[in-house]
Design a protein that fits this description.
By secondary structure, the chain is mainly beta. Helices cover 1% and strands 42% of the residues. A hairpin with a 7-residue loop joins strand 9 and strand 10. 42% of the residues are buried.
Length: 514
């Protein structure tokens, strides 16, 4: 689908740069050479965890709380004074797994801005968002040259949505301009995608098509067609990549039964991925179809929410110019809080089968996170995570065990973007706390191994330049990839500006060294 016009590019630019000390003591046992270091400084404006964005807002809103900590159990309220339950939705407390809202978080309905002149404009959603990030990367193992790179990343987004007044027909348009400057490496579509429409869709919205749930919430049917960007489940398989400078998006159709506040919801889609073109207007990949269905069962959400799902990818071979792929991926996720405790959990299991070129596909993944939120004004939460994602165990057989992450978000695995959801064993310890209503702090320590020492470490030396140096098919280079320590502080500078300062240090393991 081609689009003939662009939105007017408007930028709301306001930021204050912090220069924290980057010094860290050298540990000769962990860092043998300069190339085993990655120093990562992030600066951005942010509203909520990991969406890392600032919004042009008409009315001050409550300051963002840290991921998952905002959900700490409140003191017990007697039934006589308990507020009426209005929604079945419970947000997972797990770290960095919360999908972007729809419409995006920076968007406001004009009737809810508190401005009298707009009080009757409940049919108009608008938003304007600008983010600036500075990254200092030293010895980035994703690159072919282990040098110090100073990268300035800029991203501007604007959103306009029409609803209610034209029901059942609705539509929305979202514009994005993503650029990067001062890098010593060539432009790539992870950082650069200038003047693009990332969403332009029409929608048929039937508010009462399925009646109401037991709480009185409407259960609508929503049918969308056009260009869309959204996130699902825990973002590991389908994410718009809010942390990255550019956005995953698709063209096709999506149908949703129910809504987030209901006790059940069902979402299904058939899409062609958008190819992010650095120099031309983006178009869809006509040789690929990404499709899926996702259910939400929230009837018992005070204890557990269930998300069964199915995703698939079909790719035509283009007369031998690319792999012929037909991959099916059923999975299930369960998250919640154990009754009468502050112990939360997030569990997932995924299996993949089908055909991957001339090989049979057989891959799997499982994910476990347990957390505990302490009774304290700072809402401290400690959590432990373990993820296993299969790799190809034998490069010479006719079975491919390498997990396909589809269009997932990498940050839950690695804040320095070194890892993706492929051929990995990853335990992680994380802490989160909020010492002030405008301040949140989190950090963690991670270890990474190859699930199969005969398969690849995807991102090693491979950004912008495909390589064969990230795999040892004989399995003689070990399986330990390395360790990572990271921390960040998010501070609400004003009601309209959020800032984040972060640091991440990667320590090479034997596989990377060899």
């Amino acid at each position: 689908m081609k689009f003939l016009s662009y939105l007017l590019h408007a930028a709301f630019f306001s930021a204050i740069i912090f220069y924290p000390s980057l010094a860290s003591p050298d540990n000769s046992e962990m860092l043998a050479t300069h190339s085993t270091q990655t120093v990562f400084l992030k600066f951005e404006q942010a509203i909520v965890a990991d969406s890392v964005k600032s919004a042009f807002k008409f009315k001050e809103q409550a300051p963002a709380q840290p991921e998952a900590l905002q959900l700490a159990t409140q003191p017990e309220v007697t039934k006589a004074h308990a507020p009426k339950k209005m929604t079945y939705f419970q947000r997972a407390r797990s770290y960095s797994t919360h999908p972007e809202s729809d419409p995006p978080q920076y968007v406001r309905n004009l009737a809810k801005t508190g401005i009298d002149a707009f009080k009757d404009l409940d049919w108009l959603d608008v938003g304007l968002d600008h983010r600036m990030r500075y990254e200092l990367r030293d010895g980035d193992i994703r690159r072919s040259k282990l040098i110090t790179d100073n990268n300035f990343l800029l991203r501007t987004r604007a959103y306009v949505g029409i609803r209610n007044i034209t029901d059942p027909f609705r539509f929305a348009v979202e514009f994005e301009d993503a650029r990067a400057y001062n890098s010593d490496f060539p432009r790539d579509n992870r950082d650069w995608n200038a003047f693009e429409l990332i969403q332009t869709y029409g929608e048929l919205y039937f508010k009462d098509a399925l009646g109401q749930d037991d709480l009185g919430n409407h259960r609508p049917i929503r049918i969308r067609g056009g260009r869309m960007a959204w996130e699902a489940v825990d973002r590991r398989m389908l994410g718009s990549n809010q942390w990255r400078n550019t956005t995953n998006n698709f063209e096709g159709f999506r149908v949703t039964f129910g809504q987030e506040v209901n006790d059940w919801e069902f979402d299904a889609w058939g899409m062609q991925p958008i190819i992010r073109d650095i120099n031309e207007f983006d178009g869809r990949n006509k040789s690929q179809w990404f499709y899926g269905a996702l259910g939400h069962w929230r009837k018992w959400s005070d204890v557990i929410t269930l998300q069964p799902y199915f995703m698939g990818l079909k790719q035509n071979g283009r007369d031998g110019r690319q792999d012929e792929r037909d991959i099916y991926s059923p999975g299930i996720r369960a998250f919640g809080v154990l009754p009468s405790t502050n112990i939360d959990f997030d569990l997932g299991a995924i299996y993949q089968f089908g055909r991957d070129n001339d090989q049979t596909k057989s891959a799997w993944a499982y994910l476990v996170e347990l957390g505990y939120t302490f009774w304290h004004d700072w809402k401290p939460r400690l959590s432990a995570f373990y993820g296993f994602v299969s790799g190809d165990s034998n490069p010479n057989d006719n079975v491919n065990n390498r997990f396909e992450r589809f269009f997932g978000f990498a940050r839950p695995w690695s804040p320095d973007d070194n890892l993706i959801m492929e051929n990995i064993k990853a335990p992680k310890l994380v802490f989160e706390l909020s010492p002030h209503k405008d301040v949140s702090i989190d950090g963690g320590y991670s270890w990474f191994w190859l699930a199969s020492d005969t398969d690849r470490f995807n991102n090693l030396l491979s950004v912008s330049t495909p390589t064969t140096l990230n795999r040892d098919p004989r399995g003689q280079s070990g399986d330990f990839l390395g360790q990572s320590i990271n921390a960040r502080i998010r501070y609400k500078l004003t009601s309209h500006i959020d800032t984040t300062v972060g640091y991440s240090r990667w320590m090479n393991g034997v596989f990377v060294k060899k």
